[in-house]
Design a protein that fits this description.
The protein is of the alpha+beta class and 176 residues long. The chain is built from five helices and five strands; from the N terminus they run H-E-E-E-E-H-H-E-H-H. The longest helix has 34 residues. It is rod-shaped. It starts with 5 loop residues before the first helix and ends with a helix.
């Protein structure tokens, strides 16, 4: 972009920086979401062949409740085993036995992840608007080609992210 004005290069850099921040925000939100999903089962092992969880003291948690309408599945250990365990205080405060509740709706995004997706989309839309304005202000052919190609890429990313956000909201509303 040898013939591009300095302002065009700066706007392109700023828009790409906004897109990079949106991408980093998505990555951080995904990582935090995955960690929060696994926090209730830390130290426990799932055995898919028997559909049971086992605790660190080798007691089993069996499925006791399933609500397909809300997408919840509850596993519970026996109260007698948990109440006599030496590690009960660190594991649970319930006298009914340790429970693990899982969501069976894999496609549903949780509230914080949806929030971060919306912020990321806002940043991408802002970056696209900057590129669109600069596209009409710039006179050279090659700077316009570069701006248009990056703008097209941003539009594709925005479209895919907004469809995923919309699907997550619709799936959540259908199961409430």
């Amino acid at each position: 972009m040898a013939g591009a004005p300095l302002e065009c290069i700066l706007m392109l850099g700023y828009a790409c920086t906004l897109a990079l921040v949106a991408l980093l925000l998505e990555g951080i939100a995904h990582h935090a979401h995955q960690r929060s999903l696994g926090s209730s089962t830390v130290g426990f092992t799932y055995h898919p062949d028997r559909d049971v969880w086992s605790c660190p003291k080798d007691q089993h948690l069996f499925p006791v409740f399933s609500d397909s309408a809300k997408g919840k599945l509850t596993y519970r250990a026996s109260a007698a085993a948990c109440n006599s365990c030496m590690s009960k205080a660190a594991c649970t405060d319930s006298n009914d036995g340790r429970t693990i509740e899982l969501s069976t709706l894999r496609g549903v995004e949780h509230g914080m992840k949806r929030f971060h997706r919306a912020v990321s989309l806002t940043l991408l839309v802002l970056a696209s608007l900057i590129l669109l304005v600069e596209l009409f202000r710039t006179a050279g052919l090659y700077p316009r080609i570069a701006l248009a190609s990056i703008l097209t890429m941003f539009c594709v990313v925005i479209q895919r992210a907004s469809v995923n956000l919309y699907r997550g909201i619709q799936t959540r509303e259908n199961h409430l």
